[in-house]
Amino acid sequence: MASLNEIKSTGKKPRDGHFTLWNKYVCSHFSVYITKILLYTPITANQVTFVMLVFGIVGSIFLFNGFFITGLLLLHLAVLLDNVDGEIARYKNEKSMMGKYLDGVYHVIVPQLMLFGYAYGIYNLYPNKLLIIFGFLAATFSKSLILPALFDAIVTMQIWGAHPPLRTKTNGSEVKEIEGLAGDYKSNLLKIYNILKEFWEHPFNLIALTILYVWEIYNLKHLILPPYSATVAFFVLYGIFVTLNQTASFILHTKRNSIESFYVFLFGRK
Length: 270
Prior knowledge:
By secondary structure, the protein is mainly alpha-helical. It contains twelve helices and no strands. The chain has a single domain (4-267), classed as Four Helix Bundle (Hemerythrin (Met), subunit A), CATH 1.20.120.1760. Helix content is 74%, strand content 0%. It is globular and about 65 Å long. 31% of the residues are buried.
């Protein structure tokens, strides 16, 4: 059976939107122990991914109902399993489209439920409408809405068998810059954006909520600030930031006609 070092070596993968610094430098040091145990069982990577999805949804429901410790623990466990499924898949060579699909469902649903669930849970303790308004904005715009719309349009065109005329001269190379996978960036702005974006995406927003909860418990005892004022400030700032970020993304991709770049990158010119 595999050693911990073999699992760590097999578990390494290129940086993508889901493999953040937190996964690399924290979760991976714990996930290998779970992976080693599961490798002795018939449990598959896809089954782990499904459990990860369940933990994420259930943890968010706990947040909605004010059970913050239980909810946050389940969500952190889900993030840990996000490493485990990949380690199992790569060690057993079980990579599959279904696994990627389940992983995608998790990253589309859970972070949004988590953010609004936390804001709503705090709202029940401290009824400030800013928590609902900016909690909703934070949940809605914390995940890119623009790129899924691009992919949906491209897939629909392919299903219809339509090959749109391309006005761009791109070869699709800039797609790697947009996705944060370029080795050499032509745009320094995109390079900086892709380096920094993981600090407001999942799981760093989960870490922020955890720190906020610990602070609020401490603050309730010592009353350094008005109760839950830090949480309100966080959601106002976070909600405004991600909303402006998505607005800028829409303007950028529309102006640059990115949909054609993605089409060429995926299917070439037809």
